[in-house]
C-alpha cells in the first residue's frame, strides 16, 4: 500500500524517537501512544522514550515477502520485549536468520523501513539488530 | 428474543474460479440457498466481505449483490470484521430475526481473491493487521501466526508433528467435500517438505487464496417449520475482540477474543463446552486450529496439539473438528468462510454431509468459530438440530 | 575553547572482499589489493543509508557528550555525496530523531568527499562566534562505484558525527585551513547513478596537490611540524594514497596507523578522515595533538589540528569504539547480494 506522506509524517514521534504513553494511574507504558489506558480508562499521561534494547519474545522468518521487502528477504520479524517491559514488533536485521531465537538480546537501530519505488518517499523507523557488545 | 433457525444453505464453486466474477459467485451461492430453503422472499441481506475494495475494487457491494440475486430493493448491509466477516454477518442476521424485526434474512459471505496479483492479495489480507505498527514493519499474515506458533512451541512444547497432523486431518476431511478447493489427502511428509513461508509455517500449514461464496437462510422457527425442510436452531451467539496488534497482547499463546466469544455463545446457549459434539473452527494456519481448540475451552492450554495428534478431532474422534476440510482444504475466501462453517454444521446436524463425510452417531450440537485477523476478533455460534 | 564535545561513528556490518568483486569482472585481485592497498570494503544493506548512519553516529556522539539537551544543538549539517533525496534535506530526519527540532539551523552539505569536514568547520565556526551552545556536524556516505570501475573496489559506507561546543571539550580545535581550486577530477552529473572520474588525473593534480597544499599551509600557520603530532589522518580514497601523502609530508607509519581504515573499510567518502578521527580519539591520550586533512574532488582539502583534553578518558567508552565496529561481528556478502543491496539489479517496478 502506498505510504502517503502525512500518514508517515504524523508517526515520527513514535517511529523516530520511540515516544510512548505512560499513564498516571497505572504507570503502564503503551507503544504506540494512545489516548486512553485500555486497562484503567485513565487519560492522564506523560510521554516517555523507550529504551533501545530488549530481548526476542517470538519471531518468524518471512521467506515469501511483500514486494516492499524483496531486497531483504528472507528477513526475520520479531516481537521484542524492551528493557522497560514494553513490547514492539519490528524486523530483526543484520543477522543470520537461521540463528534467530527466542530470548536473543537485541538492540534497536534507526533504519529505513520502507522505500516507495524509485521516486516516492522514504520511511524511517527502528529495527532490531543482534546485540553484540 | 425469538428462537432463530437456519433452514437452507448454498455454496458457489470454490477455488480459483477464473470464469466467475465477484457478483457471479455471490449470486450462485444465494440462489442455491434460496432454492434449498424454498423461500419466496427475503426481508433483508447481511453479506460478509472482508475487502471487496482491495480485492476487486468494489465497495457498496450489498446493494449490488442484492440486485444481481433478484432481490432489488430489500434492506441490505455489508458486514466486515476481516476474516470473521462471514460469521459476523450471520450474527447480524441472527439478531435481526431474534429481535422480531425481520422473519426471513439471508446471511452470506463472498470474496473474490484471484482478480488481483498475489502480492496485492497478500497486502489486502495484511490490512487486517495493524497497518502502522505491524504491516509497516513487514508483517504478513503467515508471519503473524508463525510468531504465535513459535511462542506456543516454546511455551508448551507444541511440535512440528502436531502442526502437520492438523493439515493431514483437514485434507482427509476435505477430500470428501465436493466444494473443497483442494479435495485430496496429503501426508505428514508432504507437509514437512513443503516450502517454508514464514518459519515455522510451511505452505501446507497455510489456507489457500480462494474465490467463493456461501449463503444461508436465517428465519424464525415458525417459518422454518412451515417450509417442511430439516432445520437447525441457533442456540448461542458470541463475539469477542482483542488488540489487533500482536505485540500488545498480554499472552502470545492464547486467543482471548476466541475465549470471550466462545464463553458468551456457550452462556447464551446454556451449554458447557463438553456438550458440544463437533466444531468448525478457523484453521487459517495449522497453529490456529490448535490455539482455537484451546481457546474455546475444549482443551487445556498446550494440550490440543497432542489431542489432535492422537486423532481425537478426526471425523470419528471424540470431538471432530473441521469435517468440511476446514479453511485448509476447503479453501478460504475470507468473507465467505464464516458462512461456509454454518453450512457444514447444518449439513452435519441434518445428516446430509456428502461422500461419507457424515460424523457417526448423529451429532446434535455443533459450534462454528470464525476469526478475524490474527485473533483481533472472533465470533462463535452454537447450533442444535431441531428435534 | 571550541572543540568536539562528543563524537561517534557508525558502520555497516556487511563487507565484500576485493577478490569477490574481482572474480565477477575478471580483474586480477592480488594486483588490485596491492595497487589500492585495500582488502575489503563496507556494504550498506538496503535498510541503511546516509540518514540512518547519521542518526546512529549521532546517538553515539550524544552518549559521549554526556547529558546535553538535544534542544541546545543550534545547527545540524550533514556532509555527504549520497543524500538519499536529491531534494529534501537529510539533516531534518536526524534532527527529529534526536529531538533537536524545531529551533535549529539545518542544511545538507555537498563537496564530494570533503562535505563532512566542511560541515565540521562551519559547526566549529558557530561555536567560536558564540552563536549557539552546540552545533552538530556529520560526515556520512553510502557511495557507489560503477560496476567494474576501479572505484567499485573501494566505494564504501560509514558515518562520523561530531558535536561541537565550548564546554567539556574532548578535543580542542587549534587551527584550521582550507585549500581549494577548481580541479574536476571526479564528478557525477544530475540524474546519473554512478560518478565518473579523471582516472590517473585524480592523483597528482587533485588529491596530492590539495592534501599537501592544505597540510603545508596549516603546518606553517601553526608553526608545527609532523613530529609534534601523536596521530595524523588524511582522506583515504584507497589504502595507498593516505599512506603516501602522510609519508611524503613527513609523518610516520605509527602516526597514521590508527586512523588508516581504508584497507579494511574502503573509502567512506565524506566519512573517511572523520571516521579515522573517531578511531584516533578512541585511543588518544590527554594532550595529544591530532592532525587531520580531508580531500574532496572538485577539489579541496580541509585541515584541522586538534588537541585532546583530559575529558577523553571519561567519555571514550561511553559509546562503542570505532575499532569494534570495524573488526567485529562482520557479515561477508557475495557479489550477488552486494548487487541486490546496492540496487544494481534491474527489476520490474
Structure description:
The complex is a heterotrimer of chains A (133), B (387) and C (349). Chain A has 133 residues and is mostly beta strands. Chain A has a single domain (5-130), classed as OB fold (Dihydrolipoamide Acetyltransferase, E2P). Chain A has helices at 5-9, 12-17; strands spanning 19-23, 29-30, 45-49, 53-62, 75-82, 87-92, 105-115, 122-130. In chain A, strand 7 (105-115) and strand 8 (122-130) form a beta hairpin. Chain A starts with a helix and ends with a strand. Chain B is an alpha/beta fold and 387 residues long. Chain B has two domains: 4-117 and 210-227, Thiolase/Chalcone synthase (Peroxisomal Thiolase, Chain A, domain 1); 122-207 and 235-385, Peroxisomal Thiolase, Chain A, domain 1, CATH 3.40.47.10. Chain B contains 14 helices and eleven strands. Chain B has helices spanning 22-37, 52-56, 61-68, 85-98, 118-126, 141-156, 160-174, 188-193, 221-227, 256-269, 286-295, 304-309, 326-330, 334-350, and strands at 4-11, 44-48, 76-79, 104-111, 196-198, 201-202, 212-220, 232-241, 278-280, 365-372, 377-385. In chain B, strand 10 and strand 11 (377-385) form a beta hairpin. Chain B is globular, with a radius of gyration of 19 Å. Chain C contains 13 helices and 14 strands. In chain C, the strands form three sheets. In chain C, strands 5-4-6-7-1-8-13-12-11 form a nine-stranded mixed sheet, with helices on both faces. In chain C, helix 1 packs across helix 2 (29-36) and helix 3 crosses helix 4 (91-98). Classes of the chains: A mainly beta (133), B alpha/beta (387), C alpha/beta (349). The interface between A and B is large, with 35 and 36 residues.
Give the arrangement of secondary structure elements.
The complex is a heterotrimer of chains A (133), B (387) and C (349).
Chain A: H1 5-9, H2 12-17, E1 19-23, E2 29-30, E3 45-49, E4 53-62, E5 75-82, E6 87-92, E7 105-115, E8 122-130
Antiparallel strand pairs in A: 1-2, 1-3, 4-5, 4-7, 5-6, 7-8
Chain B: E1 4-11, H1 22-37, E2 44-48, H2 52-56, H3 61-68, E3 76-79, H4 85-98, E4 104-111, H5 118-126, H6 141-156, H7 160-174, H8 188-193, E5 196-198, E6 201-202, E7 212-220, H9 221-227, E8 232-241, H10 256-269, E9 278-280, H11 286-295, H12 304-309, H13 326-330, H14 334-350, E10 365-372, E11 377-385
Parallel strand pairs in B: 2-3, 2-4, 9-10
Antiparallel strand pairs in B: 1-7, 1-8, 4-7, 5-6, 8-11, 10-11
Helix pairs in contact in B: 1-3, 4-14, 7-11
Chain C: E1 3-10, E2 14-17, H1 18-25, H2 29-36, E3 40-43, H3 50-65, E4 73-79, H4 91-98, E5 105-109, H5 115-128, E6 134-142, E7 157-165, E8 171-183, E9 186-187, E10 196-197, H6 203-222, E11 231-234, H7 239-249, H8 253-256, H9 262-265, H10 272-281, E12 289-293, E13 298-308, H11 312-315, H12 322-327, E14 331-332, H13 335-341
Parallel strand pairs in C: 2-14, 4-5, 4-6, 11-12
Antiparallel strand pairs in C: 1-7, 1-8, 2-3, 6-7, 8-13, 9-10, 12-13
Amino acid at each position: 500500500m502506498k505510504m502517503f506522506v502525512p500518514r508517515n509524517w504524523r508517526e515520527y514521534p513514535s517511529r523516530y524517537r520511540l515516544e510512548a504513553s505512560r499513564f498516571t494511574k497505572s504507570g503502564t507504558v503503551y507503544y504506540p501512544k494512545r489516548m486512553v489506558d485500555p486497562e484503567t480508562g485513565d487519560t492522564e499521561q506523560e510521554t516517555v522514550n523507550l529504551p533501545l534494547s530488549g530481548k526476542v519474545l517470538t519471531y518468524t522468518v518471512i521467506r515469501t515477502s511483500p514486494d516492499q521487502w524483496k531486497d531483504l528477504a528472507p528477513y526475520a520479524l520479531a516481537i521484542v520485549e524492551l528493557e522497560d517491559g514494553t513490547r514492539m514488533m519490528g524486523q530483526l536485521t543484520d543477522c543470520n536468520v537461521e540463528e534467530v531465537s527466542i530470548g536473543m538480546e537485541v538492540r534497536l537501530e534507526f533504519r529505513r523501513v520502507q522505500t516507495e519505488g524509485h521516486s516516492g518517499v522514504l520511511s524511517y523507523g527502528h529495527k532490531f539488530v543482534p546485540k553484540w557488545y | 428474543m425469538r428462537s432463530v433457525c437456519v433452514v437452507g444453505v448454498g455454496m458457489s464453486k470454490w477455488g480459483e474460479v477464473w470464469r466467475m466474477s465477484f457478483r457471479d459467485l455471490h449470486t450462485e451461492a444465494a440462489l442455491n440457498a434460496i432454492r434449498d430453503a424454498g423461500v419466496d422472499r427475503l426481508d433483508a441481506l447481511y453479506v460478509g466481505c472482508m475487502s471487496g475494495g482491495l480485492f476487486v475494487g468494489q465497495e457498496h457491494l450489498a446493494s449490488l449483490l442484492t440486485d444481481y440475486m433478484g432481490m432489488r430493493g430489500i434492506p441490505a448491509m455489508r458486514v466486515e470484521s476481516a476474516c470473521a466477516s462471514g460469521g459476523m454477518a450471520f450474527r447480524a442476521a441472527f439478531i435481526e430475526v431474534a429481535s422480531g424485526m425481520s422473519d426471513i434474512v439471508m446471511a452470506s459471505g463472498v470474496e473474490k481473491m484471484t482478480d488481483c496479483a498475489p502480492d496485492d492479495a497478500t497486502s489486502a489480507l495484511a490490512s487486517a493487521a495493524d497497518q502502522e505498527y505491524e504491516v509497516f514493519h513487514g508483517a504478513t499474515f503467515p508471519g503473524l501466526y508463525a510468531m504465535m506458533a513459535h511462542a506456543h512451541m516454546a511455551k508448551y512444547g507444541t511440535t512440528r508433528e502436531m502442526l502437520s497432523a492438523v493439515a493431514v486431518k483437514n485434507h482427509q476431511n476435505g477430500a470428501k467435500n465436493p466444494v473443497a478447493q483442494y479435495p485430496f489427502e496429503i501426508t505428514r511428509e508432504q507437509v514437512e517438505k513443503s516450502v517454508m513461508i514464514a518459519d515455522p509455517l510451511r505452505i501446507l500449514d497455510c489456507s489457500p487464496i480462494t474465490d467463493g461464496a456461501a449463503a444461508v437462510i436465517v428465519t424464525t422457527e415458525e417459518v422454518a417449520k412451515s417450509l417442511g425442510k430439516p432445520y437447525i436452531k441457533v442456540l448461542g451467539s458470541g463475539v469477542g475482540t482483542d488488540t489487533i496488534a500482536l505485540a500488545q497482547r498480554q499472552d502470545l499463546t492464547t486467543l482471548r477474543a476466541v475465549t470471550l466469544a466462545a464463553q458468551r455463545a456457550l452462556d447464551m446457549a446454556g451449554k458447557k463446552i463438553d456438550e458440544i459434539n463437533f466444531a468448525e473452527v478457523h484453521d487459517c494456519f495449522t497453529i490456529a486450529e490448535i490455539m482455537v481448540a484451546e481457546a474455546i475451552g475444549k482443551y487445556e492450554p498446550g494440550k490440543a496439539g497432542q489431542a489432535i495428534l492422537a486423532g481425537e478431532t478426526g471425523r470419528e474422534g471424540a470431538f471432530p473438528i473441521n469435517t468440511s476440510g476446514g479453511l485448509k482444504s476447503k479453501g478460504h475466501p475470507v468473507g465467505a468462510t464464516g458462512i461456509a462453517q454454518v453450512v457444514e454444521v447444518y449439513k452435519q446436524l441434518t445428516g446430509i454431509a456428502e461422500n461419507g463425510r457424515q460424523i457417526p452417531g448423529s451429532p446434535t450440537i455443533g459450534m462454528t468459530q470464525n476469526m478475524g485477523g490474527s485473533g483481533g476478533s472472533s465470533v462463535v455460534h452454537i447450533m442444535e438440530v431441531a428435534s | 575553547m571550541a572543540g568536539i564535545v562528543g563524537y561517534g561513528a557508525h558502520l555497516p556490518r556487511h563487507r565484500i572482499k576485493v577478490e569477490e568483486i574481482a572474480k565477477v569482472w575478471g580483474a586480477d585481485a592480488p594486483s588490485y589489493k596491492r595497487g589500492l592497498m585495500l582488502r575489503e570494503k563496507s556494504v550498506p544493506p538496503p535498510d541503511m543509508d546516509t540518514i540512518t548512519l547519521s542518526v546512529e553516529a549521532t546517538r553515539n556522539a550524544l552518549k559521549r557528550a554526556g547529558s546535553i539537551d538535544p534542544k541546545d544543538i543550534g545547527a545540524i549539517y550533514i556532509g555527504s555525496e549520497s543524500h538519499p533525496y536529491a531534494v529534501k534535506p537529510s539533516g531534518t530526519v536526524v534532527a527529529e530523531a534526536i529531538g533537536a527540532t524545531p529551533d535549529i539551523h539545518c542544511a545538507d552539505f555537498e563537496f564530494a568527499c570533503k562535505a563532512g569536514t566542511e560541515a565540521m568547520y562551519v559547526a566549529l565556526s558557530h561555536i567560536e562566534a558564540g552563536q549557539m551552545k552546540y552545533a552538530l556536524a556529520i560526515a556520512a556516505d553510502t557511495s557507489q562505484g560503477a560496476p567494474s570501475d576501479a572505484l567499485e573496489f573501494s566505494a564504501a559506507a560509514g558515518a562520523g558525527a561530531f558535536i561541537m561546543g565550548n564546554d567539556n571539550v574532548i578535543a580542542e580545535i587549534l587551527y584550521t585551513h582550507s585549500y581549494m581550486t577548481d580541479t574536476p577530477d571526479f564528478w557525477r552529473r544530475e540524474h546519473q547513478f554512478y560518478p565518473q572520474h579523471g582516472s590517473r588525473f585524480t592523483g597528482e593534480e587533485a588529491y596530492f596537490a590539495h592534501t599537501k597544499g592544505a597540510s603545508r599551509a596549516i603546518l606553517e600557520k601553526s608553526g608545527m611540524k609532523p613530529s609534534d603530532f601523536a596521530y595524523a589522518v588524511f582522506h583515504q580514497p584507497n589504502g595507498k594514497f593516505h599512506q603516501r601523502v602522510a609519508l611524503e609530508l613527513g609523518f610516520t607509519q605509527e602516526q597514521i596507523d590508527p586512523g588508516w581504515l581504508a584497507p579494511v573499510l574502503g573509502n567512506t567518502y565524506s566519512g573517511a578522515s572523520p571516521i579515522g578521527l573517531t578511531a584516533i580519539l578512541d585511543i588518544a591520550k590527554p594532550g595529544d595533538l591530532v592532525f587531520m586533512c580531508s580531500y574532496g574532488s572538485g577539489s579541496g582539502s580541509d585541515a584541522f589540528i586538534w588537541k585532546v583534553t583530559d575529558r577523553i578518558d571519561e567519555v571514550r567508552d561511553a559509546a562503542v569504539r570505532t575499532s569494534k565496529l570495524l573488526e567485529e561481528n562482520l557479515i561477508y556478502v557475495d557479489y550477488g547480494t552486494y548487487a541486490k543491496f546496492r540496487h544494481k539489479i534491474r527489476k520490474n517496478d
